[in-house]
């Protein structure tokens, strides 16, 4: 199985006598008459990286960095020219493991960048990757950053270093940029970390300590614009910094308690003019929950931790690999979010701009499960559909036969009913080209029912004895738990928006793509992907699922949802966070697989976006106070009741994704006068 390590590594041209090399030289001319070379890794790799002493690079990796190969020259001259060029340079790169046709493992570089060797370079140098945080990259000032470190909160993403559980950086750097230069501060010492949407969350070994990075030390570090958020520090300097840090006094954090002070001010009567516009019932509820938040420190809040499942982990790895091989550029967080939604939701809707591979993702998900034939049915929705008969068919009483719809849905459901041990996926492609409430009406009622009671009716029972093909198409079909429903949608002028009846039953995922520059780092697209050797049957998929019927949401999580519900009710009595949504959010959190990309606080944030904020729709007059006013000059939202609520519940989540959605909706209010 192919595998990609996305953290940056540093290397130099391998030594000729290196025992791991399969060839007599570290540079060779391959069968394509192209230069190929081997690089020795000199920086600390991820823990999962194998004990490989050299990785392979190609001439094409260096061409854009100024190296030119003259094919007319003799081979020894071409090789010597490359050797001289590499002699003064270090390479920064990522690594991909590929399995060749003869089952041989090869490790190739990609995303190659170049930086010069420093005067302090020594042959046996070992470099340690240290993440660099800054206001520019992580969106917070240094004092806020320090506070978040002490409070064990998420401090931002750094993609260039390993996020694996056992690769915790013991020290980190903060870059403070001024008009004249930039200064660095070292912070530590850390012994554990988590990594998710909010980036790194560090656990200190003792107290937080800081140390200014002296200029002479900085001169020994490898810093480059090609990998701006990581410093590669010689191990001798790294050990010196650790020792010096331990000698320092603990960092004094003046504003760690600022949030509690703010909450106390609000509860004791320091409410803003916006609060005064809110109904007394909401204000009372806010005060009660604010007090409960203050009285419970973050360290005392316990939440269920997802347990690992080896088969599920194997499936996720295969899904990651297949999406890479297919050239899709979705982040792993998106894939885990999709998988968790598929496990926990009656209906999953993939939203996003056209051309981002939503339908392809469903196909790859099915392929990674090993499903074949009718186990995946993709149904292209027609704009002309106006009733469920367009989808499921109808009883032709003139010819006395049942005529199923052309979509193939009924045949797939009949198969799923008979093959209850197999897993089936039904995908409605472009499902909002027609009004979902019209052609999908019967399904919306069925998805609300408990499993075992989900019965699709094709025609009345009294017609069964009169229809010629009633044995093939009985009047009812039982929709078992082995059937998963998913839809893809585009939101543009050619489509319909969803009603609350649909949104109450669906997890609506908005898929984001990675920056286009990362497309170059994807492996070469394959003509065909290797399917899993064994099919994931329903019993195996069921073992992935968490089906606890009792509610396990924390009191503060329930308190926030209740306050959001009251806010939405104050705008429109027909809209809110119903008990069904609360239960489904609870199921989603319980079904989160064991991994490092989405933690519980990120998952709760995603559920607020996917299950709650999708229902916040209306005019500027209705939603101005709830969403706030967008300030174009500052690119911020001002006076938002719901953002103020998030600020009080930072012990649950930082609500990064929710804040982004609210900002977008506030923009729509400003420019369009309404938001959908």
Automatic annotation (TrEMBL):
SMART domains: AAA (SM00382). Pfam families: AAA_5 (PF07728). Coiled coil: none annotated. Residues 344-509 form the AAA+ ATPase domain. Transmembrane segments: none annotated. Residues 270-286 have a biased composition (Polar residues). GO terms for molecular function: ATP binding; ATP hydrolysis activity. Residues 262-286 are annotated as: Disordered. This is AAA domain-containing protein.
